[in-house]
Design brief:
The chain is an all-alpha fold. It is built from 20 helices and two strands. A two-stranded antiparallel sheet has the order 1-2. It comes from Sipha flava (yellow sugarcane aphid).
Length: 388
């Protein structure tokens, strides 16, 4: 039997699910699609800044939506909300007997009003919340290590500065973000704080109360993005090499261009993986991506990475690629700035679902990386004649 790794499909659990009855009504917002008249201006970077937030809470920036298409009817949304509430009421049983149904509903998109509850269950953060009641607030009251505190404070204003939660430097949003990040450094002192954690914590705070966001953040850092934030980031480098190997299989002409130009994966995929695409994808696409990511786990990062490389470079032959991207500079510019108009929610999610990468493929490339890393360490061992 193949050994389970962080790249393989999630397993269900047999433990009983705690009752979170009060959560059912907390997240349903009947007015979430109502809008007011908007006046706007331009920010220094040229992006639109509005006097009224869009349906996701943005006043401006690249994530601001001038208008929002209603892709699903209100009746269909209510039906999906009801199904999700029923499913989470008996979650562990569903994950054992109806896991395919859970998968399909994640792929269709979790209703906005249910996302906080669904994400807690998908990450198993609801179990952490149940097991450590009020512990988050105890962590918040502790002083924390000065080094991490200073680093966190420097980054607070950089996280979604045009969002209604974080636009005010002294507002509740930035204070809650500080507490969540500080609490994690106290809970996990061996990891501490990494700048890339901040957008993920902020993203979660946009969807749920601070205590729930914290435990969801813990679950994601410890399970989905495990070892990404450790010193040296060996796991991130390893996963970048796996992404490159997958690119060779799926888009060999693009692989050839990157190899010829000596472009290592770490040069363009770092923010993608470390931030779980929170800084890359348009908001509606990002939400749908996370619905799938929290079900399938880390392999979803690789699939989205492959899709972004293909969208960014586009050309179908090596000769046309070489002509369009003659040097490393042009290639990296394209990879770091994928065209937003091609990141449409429905198209990207369809590509994500259709892109099949087997568990055996991930496991093979994972084992190859382990062997390569082992050989690399062995070659670096000093010879007896080198030891004085």
């Amino acid at each position: 039997m193949m050994q389970t790794t962080r790249y393989t499909k999630r397993d269900s659990e047999d433990t009983s699910s705690p009752a979170l009855a009060q959560m059912e009504n907390d997240y349903i917002d009947e007015d979430e699609d109502k809008y007011s008249e908007v006046s706007s201006s331009l920010a220094p970077d040229g992006s639109l800044v509005s006097t009224v937030a869009d349906r996701h809470g943005f006043f401006g920036g690249t994530q601001y939506l001038m208008e929002s298409k209603q892709l699903i009817s209100p009746n269909k949304i209510k039906e999906r909300e009801r199904k999700w509430l029923n499913m989470t009421a008996d979650w562990d049983k569903q994950m054992v007997k109806n896991i395919k149904k859970v998968q399909n509903r994640c792929r269709k998109g979790i209703p906005q009003s249910i996302r906080p509850r669904a994400w807690l269950f998908l990450t198993k953060a609801h179990k952490l919340l149940q097991a450590h009641e009020n512990y988050y607030f105890i962590l918040c009251d502790k002083p924390g290590e000065r080094k991490w505190i200073e680093d966190i404070r420097k980054d607070l204003h950089r996280q979604f500065p045009y969002h209604e939660m974080f636009v005010d430097q002294d507002g509740t949003g930035q204070k809650e973000l500080f507490n969540v990040l500080k609490a994690y450094t106290i809970l996990k002192p061996e990891v501490g704080y990494c700048q890339a954690q901040a957008p993920i914590a902020a993203f979660l705070l946009m969807h749920m109360p601070a205590e729930q966001a914290f435990w969801c953040f813990v679950a994601i850092c410890d399970n989905y993005l495990r070892d990404y934030y450790s010193p040296g980031m060996e796991t991130l480098i390893q996963d970048g090499n796996i992404l490159f190997a997958l690119l060779k299989n799926y888009e060999p002409h693009m692989y050839k261009l990157l190899r010829k130009q000596s472009i290592d994966p770490i040069m363009y995929m770092t923010e993608w993986f470390l931030c779980a695409f929170t800084r890359t994808l348009p908001w509606p696409t990002l939400l749908r991506f996370w619905d799938i990511f929290l079900f399938h786990g880390v392999k979803t990062l690789f699939k989205m990475g492959l899709i972004l490389i293909k969208i960014s470079l586009q050309e179908k032959s090596y000769s046309s690629l070489k002509k369009r991207f003659p040097t490393m500079c042009e290639t990296l510019e394209a990879l770091r700035n994928p065209p937003l108009h091609m990141l449409n929610e429905e198209k990207i999610i369809k590509k994500l679902v259709q892109l099949e990468i087997s568990e055996n493929t991930f496991e093979y490339h994972h084992q190859q990386q382990i062997l390569l890393r082992r050989k690399s360490k062995e070659t670096k061992k000093p010879r007896e004649t080198d030891v004085f």
